[in-house]
Amino acid sequence: MKAVFFNKPLELSLEIKGEKWHQGDKVEGSLSVKNHSGEDINLEKLGVLLAVGNTKKVKNKDPEAFVVEASRFFSDSGELSLDFEFQLNEDCPISENASSYYLICGKDIEHHEIGHMRLDIVPAETLSNFLEVLLDTFRFKVKTFKNKKGSIEVTMVVPDHKDYSNIGQYKILMKVDDDKIVLKHQFKIKKIIFEDGGQQIKDETRSIDQELTSDDYLIYGKAVNRAGISKRFEEVLEQVKFKPLI
């Protein structure tokens, strides 16, 4: 990814390695500067800042749109290129409609913004591999991602299949805790209730907690244990799928 910003008489080229990043990845790149004036300019305190930005406030150019988490600045050595590396936390926020991480070209004083680039942060690789099995093997689909209470809330689209015909809504709260995948499966189930000589369909909320160890989701090294993930997910589905009365 690359972007060019102008702040007369300076031309700033921001280059980032990669197109998207998992939670826990490193964001690396470089900022290079061209001076189009004939005068020497002190670049000290000019650099790159990693910040979480509120999407609406960024669009409206609100001065409080960003919360800066880390930064890297030029020194007074006279160099015109700056390498940077920012380590994302394992549980950092992912990109969603309301907010995202950004890289900002700016100054240390008041974090004066010259230009910014939005970063695409996706769930940790372990969580992404888990979701991939749900999508490929069980034909579920991801509708939305949302940061929620230290976890990622994933709203799923349930397959059009008779086994799932009673599931009105399905969400997963997911996070990585050490080497475990911690899950909370949240369902809205359509349940037939017999009363007063008749039957009614009522919605029932059902929550199922689950933890997957590395033995469940890995075979060796970083190789994904798709069969192990499938087996553990089937344990959840067995508790909520439609079962005919006769």
What does this structure look like?
The longest helix is centred in the C-terminal third of the chain and has 15 residues, at 226-240. Strands 11-12-13-14-15 form a 5-stranded antiparallel β-sheet. The protein has a 4-stranded antiparallel β-sheet with strand order 1-2-4-7, with no helix packed on it. Strands 6-5-8-9 form a 4-stranded antiparallel β-sheet. The protein is of the alpha+beta class and 246 residues long. The chain starts with a strand and ends in a 6-residue tail after the last helix. The model has no long low-confidence stretch (mean pLDDT 91). The protein has 2 domains: 2-122, Macroglobulin (MG2) domain (Immunoglobulin-like); 125-240, Aspartate Aminotransferase, domain 1 (Alpha-Beta Complex). The protein has 4 helices and 15 strands. Helix 2 (125-138) crosses helix 4 (226-240). The chain is elongated. The chain is 15% helix and 50% strand.
